[in-house]
Design a protein that fits this description.
globular, 34 strands, five-stranded mixed beta sheet, mainly beta, Methylamine Dehydrogenase, Chain H
Length: about 450
Amino acid sequence: MTEPELFSGGLAAVDYDADGDIDLYVVGGASEPNRLYENQGDGTFLDVAEAAGLDFLHLGCGPTFGDVDGDGDLDLFIGAVEGDPYYVLENRDGVFFDVTDRSGVVFGAENTVSAAFFDYDVDGLLDLFLAHWGARRREGDDTETVWRNNGNFTFTEFSVATRVADGLTALGVDRSFTPSFADIDADGDGDLLMVADFNKTQVYLNNGDGTFADVTDRDVFVDQAGMGSAIGDYDNDGDMDWFVTSIYNLDVDEGTYFGNRLYRNWGSAVFEDVTDAAGVADGGWGWATCFADFDNDGHLDLFHVNGWIRYRGKNFTADQVRFFHAQGDGTFRERATEVGLEDKGQGRGLACFDAERDGDIDIVITNNSEDHIVYYRNDTANGNHYLGVKLAGAGENRYGVGAKITVTTASGSQVREIRAGNNYVSQNPLEPRRLTWSYCGRMVGSRYLTGCRPTSC
């Protein structure tokens, strides 16, 4: 396999047919077609890719759904590596049509690994952001990163106009893996967090005028081989923190890598690297990741897949996935084996979502090895409570991408954001976001929970 093939693949977890449960779209690679697994409502799935027009056979990568035309259903972008076809697809009542040629999304990059949808210019339309690993860039180049939605299912390249290109061309070679959006400075618009390989992770603040400012502090953002991205308020202080997977290897002869990085946001996009204090550095060779409250105790836990690849003639041994359980004091304890998460495949993609609608977060992994799809059902039964929130807007951005949800109880507040982005070649659902608490208490605000029974709205 070539180097790009080794990091390709992935999946997306979304409710593509709007029936209230989360479905799975899995990229198969060159050996088998892509699969669309429709959730039957009970946590079991049926492959309907052929009927939906999504059974492509290509070196696909990073499928990402978003409502491009504001008609209420989720359209799809699929990247690819090694110059294989990428796709822009329109969802028409559950059947997808290839509109790539007329979409205007045309680029020369050979490895488009991940994508994100976000309305960066606040015109009501979801724009498209792409990560192209390995593309050489020169000053003044369009980097093919930012694609502004024109409103008629066409896009125009806006990397130079938004000044995102400035930061990427300064690097010489684009090593971007994972684009994500979050309002890290709490000014009401989405900022771009771009995880990248070879010490090239970048932070772009949204200026609010259709441009971005590269504010990357190389003394803080020190991940050496950034792969995956998880964004969430792990310390429940009201702002978005950032976890980046990387490589952990302290063998000097093999090249020293200091592992994952956890960047705590102190407010107004002022970050601190708190990895060592939090206890989340050693993740092997981490790829896709997620923040999720797996035990409904009100604290976000961390999970990520693992995969030591055969690279430059070296055959690395199998390593296990990582589950960092939040202790409630800003620290985490690794408990993967203890809770039954024992996969040792070549993990790449990951989706964390409630497959059965039973109130807890399940896990689906895609591996670039045997056991391509691994599904872990969460059987936690501790009686803790949860709230699921699904947003419905009247304009083009009907799914509320970029919206912020705050729920306050007697023990404090929890904040979640709605995203149509990536955690490394993968997408978690646009909805619902789980807000959880471990005792029977009334929520404070415009909506109240009067009972102790698990509920959703």
